[in-house]
Amino acid sequence: MQSTGQIQQEPWRWQEVQHRSLPPVSNSAVLAMLRWVLLMLLAVSPASLLSAETNAPVQLTPQELFEGGTVVFTNWIEFSVGGFLSNGNASRLQQRQQSRGGPFGGIEDFHYQAEVATNTTFYVDGHALFDNDDYGVKLELVREKVGFLRFSYNQYSIRYNGDGGFDPPSDMGYPLSENALGLERGEISFEGGLTLEDAPNVSFKYKRSTRDGEKGSTSWGIAHPNGVSRGLSPSFYDLKEHSDTFQLDVAHTINKTDFGGGLRYDTGKLDDALKITQSPAEPLFQRRITDRQGATYDLFNVHAFSETWLTNNLMFSTGFSYSDLNTDFSGSRIYGSDFDVGYAPNALNGFGYFGLNGGSRLHEYVADLNLFYKPSPNVAIVPSLRVMKEDWGASSAGSETLTELVITDFTASSERSLLDVRERLDLRYTGVTNWVLHARADFTQGDGNLNEVGGLVPVNGVGVPSIERKTEDRRFFQKYSAGARWYPSRYVVVDAGGYYKLNAYDYDHSLDSTRNNTFDRYPAFLVMQDFDTTDGNLRLTLRPLPSVTLVSRYEFQFSTIHTKPDLISGLGPMESSEMTSHIVAQDISWSPWSRLSLQAGLNYVLSDTKTPASEITQAILRAQNNYWTLNFSSSLVVDTKTDLNLNYFYYQADDYSDNSAFSALYGSGNEEHGVTATLTRRMSTHIRWTLRYGFFQNHYRLLGWNQNNEAHLLFSSLQYRF
């Protein structure tokens, strides 16, 4: 988990390796003034700097450059403290910065290693940051050519904004809480292994993972601003999950063959609930929905692989996996005056159910065959084959509810089987000077069947009847891609490529109890659906000067969906969706001075999706995902002990359209700014000090500007190396 103190990653270390191995150049008046000001602020003697510049630099290794001298330290501890000074919407800010928004600090990073015996090393890594709920420790004991033992523990929080939507006509927003929702994630593991020479390598690992807390959802409830129904009311998930994994793996090499295998067993429990408020702030009509979803599962997997060099230019590899997944599930959807209450009939209740119980069983078989053949030094051919078969069955039962009507029981069962065969061929050719050519053809053929009986039934005559259906489906996926890289000179690189992809689905409903010429058309309405995509991209890398690199990129993508409904519906084939995307990117790196590095990047995306519905009604707009980003960073090596880094980020998505007269609002209208300045000072061979300032500003037009926020970050860390 990345801590808040590491919001921006500075590239000063690599620049330091490059710059400090070069003799300093003569200063211009501006650069000289900048350096003198920084040196005065840092209380560095200019005379000592001038004296140092008259001497030839000492040639150091990259690690010595990082340490700031010839003494290399392998251990360190870093303490940090910081905090945000903010105003505006706290929940949105906490999600964006993944922080509580107040002060934080503690041990940013700790590493210790020591040789405890001959060829035996003990490692400790960890961190602990208060108020960000970010803790971790890792212990490792390694004996060369014998084995290892590891223990690790990590706990961290993920923050989510759970607020609902905004209605412009009434100027009403629907917040959930002042602070962001928090989801705690944890993981603890034990691992050990034997790495003896000329013997099989064996490893065993146990891991327990947990999720506990709340996260936002976009499955919003119904609200009534100005008496109009809109899906604006906030909702959230209440999660409580854990899983345990046991894994044993063995690998060995005999002559020219590497082979291995393993066993894995997973077991877990999920107790989750989606919680929705309907008609908020309306005392006579407000209802709370608790949609609970529970499951326990056991997964057993066995897998094996082999890799053999048949000749010096021919390699054959195989893989096999079998999985058995057994799941028991439960659930309910209950309306009430509060969350987590029992079922009680009420005229305001919508459709619900309780007492849902069921189970499912899945068997999956996967086999892979791969061949790598290099008939000449310039040609590589890689054919591969993958076969997957799945069989599963499920059954369930429960009780349906609706308003004050009589409770009605329901049952359901289903069976599914499928077989997919995938073939792929990769080609690579380097026989033309300064050219690299590559191509790939990828095919998947599949068929399966699905039998379903039962399901939801009418409650006191209200609702749709249960179904009885038998469907056979066929799939054919094909993708063709090709590309080339050309080096016309040492200063120019050109990359060009593209692909065409078509995924075709066909359905044959031999038995269907629904009537596809009425409103009750689901689920056997479609008999064909094709998804096709054409993509082309171009990348140009230029180095007009030794200190300048330019990278330009353009990508075009066009996708369509073609659909054919059942003939009995009276509807013909149609293009149900069309999406067009343009992506333009430009990056530049410039090192105008041996101690200064500058980088800037611009990305611009135009993406538009239209459907037949968007052409005939304003309630459904054409989907747009247009945005652009700008980023800038600079690294200045002030002297042999001091670095200064500046970073700026800008994002804008102007896809907002006020369609509130016809539907709930969709389409982003966001604008973000972020700037950070980081000063790093090596106080001595043992001590390194970092000071960082950041400013962040976020505007959300879609939310009526009600969730705007801005924040100042102050952060400092002190690292001691030993």
Output the keywords.
722 residues; mainly beta; Maltoporin, Chain A; two-stranded antiparallel ribbon; disordered N terminus
Describe, in plain words, how this protein is organized in 3D.
The chain is mostly beta strands. The protein has a domain at 181-353 and 362-403: Maltoporin, Chain A (Beta Barrel). Helix content is 7%, strand content 66%. The chain contains six helices and 29 strands. It has helices at 12-19, 29-41, 46-53, 62-67, 90-97, 612-616; strands at 76-88, 103-117, 120-130, 134-143, 147-160, 166-167, 172-173, 181-194, 201-223, 230-254, 257-278, 287-311, 314-336, 352-376, 379-401, 408-429, 435-454, 467-489, 492-512, 526-545, 548-565, 574-593, 596-610, 623-624, 627-639, 642-654, 669-682, 687-700, 709-721. The strands form two sheets. It has a 26-stranded antiparallel β-barrel. The protein has a two-stranded antiparallel sheet with strand order 6-7. The longest helix has 13 residues, at 29-41. The two termini are 25 Å apart. Residues 1-56 have low confidence and may be disordered.
Largest sheet: 26 strands, antiparallel, barrel
CATH level-3 fold name of the domain at 181-353 and 362-403: Maltoporin, Chain A
Give me the Rg, rounded. Answer: 31 Å
Strand runs, count = 29
CATH class of the domain at 181-353 and 362-403: Mainly Beta
Helix content: under 10%
CATH architectural type of the domain at 181-353 and 362-403: Beta Barrel
Kindly estimate the percentage of residues that lie in beta strands according to DSSP.
over 45%
The stretches of 5 or more residues where confidence is low (pLDDT under 50) are 1-56
Distance between the termini: 25 Å
Q: Indicate the overall shape.
A: globular
Structural class: mainly beta
Mean pLDDT: 89
What is the CATH superfamily label of the domain at 181-353 and 362-403?
A: TonB-dependent receptor, beta-barrel domain
User: How many helical elements?
Assistant: 6
Instruction: Give the oligomer, counting copies of the same chain as homo and different chains as hetero.
Output: single chain
